[in-house]
Design goal:
The longest helix has 24 residues. The chain is of the alpha/beta class. The relative contact order is 0.18. The chain has 11 helices and 7 strands. The protein has a single domain, classed as Vaccinia Virus protein VP39 (Rossmann fold), CATH 3.40.50.
Length: about 270
């Protein structure tokens, strides 16, 4: 294997994602005009957030522009938000004061870092939440190892991600828009389970969220409409792509898999 080539390709993927989501963060609109796992306007972002489980009250407590429609599941409680895009991090930090005022809560912080190398101590968090992000990583096995590393023994993973029932056509995988939109980097459901298990996680459960991709297509999301153009006749995105809920646990202390426990916040959310 050409290590330098593999490293360069991985960095190229990160650069494309960083640039794409940097542009999203700089927009004044609440979503991203067709280059994310979302609809194409503020109304669709609200619908999407409610569809994946956020209540009307929770959304009302958010600062203006905080719901950017970049998720496919997983509402969260106290969180350490980690993002590799400075523009996204800056946008998130600006919203902290308004969030505290509206909600009366002081339960979030944000750190700059990559999901493959989380700026979080070993064995330090109870729950790791990743919301439609792992598919963007060029080093997915390393991501799963990181999630296992930062969890306390007995801690759990709650991941919502896009996954594949079957491989996408090459034309779709080569689309930069599909990459930034969480689609081209998605892997098979079976691969996701294998990577989580090899990272040392147990009690792995995979649950496709029915209707998510059909809803995105029905809302005329530009990315999904473009994907349709590159699929075989008679097929649609829902035949290939699903929003997958993944839950798993790090074995408790009495298991041979575990080091000593650590201390830390309640939850960690890789990439805001």
């Amino acid at each position: 294997m050409d290590t330098n080539r593999t490293t360069n390709e991985a960095e190229a993927v990160r650069a494309a994602v960083r640039e794409g989501y940097g542009k999203i963060a700089q927009k004044d609109t609440s979503c991203c005009a067709g280059v994310s796992c979302c609809g194409s306007n503020a109304e669709d972002s609200t619908k999407l957030a409610q569809y994946v489980g956020y209540s009307v009250e929770e959304l009302a407590a958010l600062p203006d522009g905080a719901n950017m429609g970049l998720s496919c599941g997983n509402p969260a409680g106290r969180a350490i938000g980690v993002d590799m895009t400075p523009d996204m991090l800056g946008k998130a930090r600006k919203n902290i004061a308004a969030y505290r005022e509206r909600s009366g809560l002081d339960n979030v912080e944000f750190r700059l870092g990559e999901i493959e190398h989380l700026p979080v101590a070993d064995n330090s968090v109870d729950v790791v939440i990743s919301n439609c992000v792992i598919n963007l990583s060029p080093e997915k096995p390393q991501v799963w190892r990181e999630l296992a590393r930062v969890l306390k023994p007995g801690g759990r993973v709650a991941v919502s991600d896009l996954a594949l029932f079957k491989p996408l056509p090459q034309e779709v995988r080569e689309m930069v828009e599909a990459l930034v939109g969480c689609v081209a980097g998605a892997v098979l459901v079976s691969e996701t389970e294998r990577m989580a298990r090899e990272a040392g996680l147990t009690d792995i459960r995979l649950k496709p969220k029915e209707g998510y991709v059909e809803a995105m297509t029905a809302w005329n999301d530009p990315l999904y409409q473009k994907i349709v153009e590159h699929l075989p006749a008679g097929s649609g995105p829902e035949d290939y792509i699903t929003s997958l809920e993944i839950t798993a646990r790090k074995p408790p202390l009495n298991s041979a898999h575990n080091p000593s426990p650590g201390r830390g916040e309640c939850c960690a959310q890789p990439v805001a």
